[in-house]
Amino acid sequence: MTGRLAVVxxxxxxxxxxxxxxxxxxxxxxxxxGYGPYLDRVAQRAGQSRxxxxxxxxxxxxxxxxxxxxxxxNVAVVSSGDPGVFAMAAAVCEEIESxxxxxxxxxxxxxxGITAMLAVAARIGAPLGHDFCVLSLSDNLKPWELxxxxxxxxxxxxxxxxLYNPVSRARPxxxxxxxxxxxxxxxxxxxxxxxxxxxxxxxxxxxTTLDAADANSADMTxxxxxxxxxxxxxxxxxxGPLVYTPRAAAEVSA
Amino acid sequence: MTGRLAVVxxxxxxxxxxxxxxxxxxxxxxxxxGYGPYLDRVAQRAGQSRxxxxxxxxxxxxxxxxxxxxxxxNVAVVSSGDPGVFAMAAAVCEEIESxxxxxxxxxxxxxxGITAMLAVAARIGAPLGHDFCVLSLSDNLKPWELxxxxxxxxxxxxxxxxLYNPVSRARPxxxxxxxxxxxxxxxxxxxxxxxxxxxxxxxxxxxTTLDAADANSADMTxxxxxxxxxxxxxxxxxxGPLVYTPRAAAEVSA
Lengths: 254, 254
Description:
Largest sheet of chain A: 5 strands, parallel
Low-confidence stretches of chain A: none
Radius of gyration of chain A: 20 Å
Mean pLDDT of chain A: 95
Order of helices and strands of chain A: EHEHEHEHEHEEHEHEEEEE
CATH superfamily of the largest domain in chain A: Tetrapyrrole methylase, C-terminal domain
Number of strands of chain A: 13
Number of helices of chain A: 7
Structural class of chain A: alpha/beta
CATH architecture of the largest domain in chain A: 2-Layer Sandwich
Number of domains of chain A: 2
Strand order of the largest sheet of chain A: 3-2-4-1-5
Strand content of chain A: 25-35%
Oligomer: homodimer
């Protein structure tokens, strides 16, 4: 008997974003693993066990789910958004690579979901309509110098930048420092979008500029999009502004 | 009476990826606009008109849909994948900005979808599990020199790279040139993933290396993921390999 492990993306939070494939997989598993608040988003079904763990426990959670699946069970690990973007799919792969050979024989299925940057972008227009970079601002797993180097490279080459994990209780200064760093490369009028809790209670999307961007207005659930020199804002009478990056680009910097 | 325009992401092609939100919007509109093969994926419903247009007609299609909505109609434009990633949302914003003032008053809704890189990544593991860049290889709307500059910046700074629009009949040499360019920055053993037609007939996902990557094996429906120095391949007896990029990074290049 071979166990099965699914790594399932729940999307940004609202079941309107949960794909039929994710819903089907979640309805058939025997056991669910995940960060507590994400598990709480999954509909309760009879006969399923739930194993909640803390935010920072990704590898331990992945190992527990793999052990359970290796016993022949049909198991799912859930992620908010897409499991492949700064989420559980990489943690599961890390555990498979370093774990017992039998884990490589498991039937592993990764179910994609709407990741936060796509949901935030959709709410405000099309800021990711041209080339962009996606960067986690957490220096828990990489040196801060590497993050700065990547911010420099991305802004310098004209990429729009989507920032995941901008801030946490243990990482209070990083976002402010990143914003200052980006101000060296980009005009102060560059559009910046803060999106939080998309599709959940407390949803908020705000447009500001790199000059006025306030790191204190972000929390753990915030996704930030920093425009490029090409990103534009369309004012709309009686409606919120649209932010978009045109598909065409002419500029080649020095 | 104010018209409504929805820009709807269909996901990679299979209805298992179509979100409930997208399905609901598509079921309520009076008129559908899109590239013919994408429109063909939408279930037929009585009373809806369909307006197919060619692949390269994005702005004209956006303008036609906006004009229709401005007459008070409830209209949708469909995109494959996510409409905000190299797709119709930016084209619609471009038309709104340059069009009549009344278009800014329209009720515009953008409905996110599973974009190709998330679907390809999910099929193969977690290659986008760490920082990554997303780049269109089409030089129809930007100079080739800019693309090379961005490839240099992305590979040099250790980003994984997702390439959209790698090739078309009118752009036969660009992918080969990009691969050669990336070989200057990255080891020849760097994992490369070619994914095509995910969730559709003819689906294929292949893992190769930067050394062996063959530009001729890509077509218009292919999405390519170029690993970073950190990206790893896990061999699995009796199963295809997993490709993933660990969440942790130590390297700071010079």
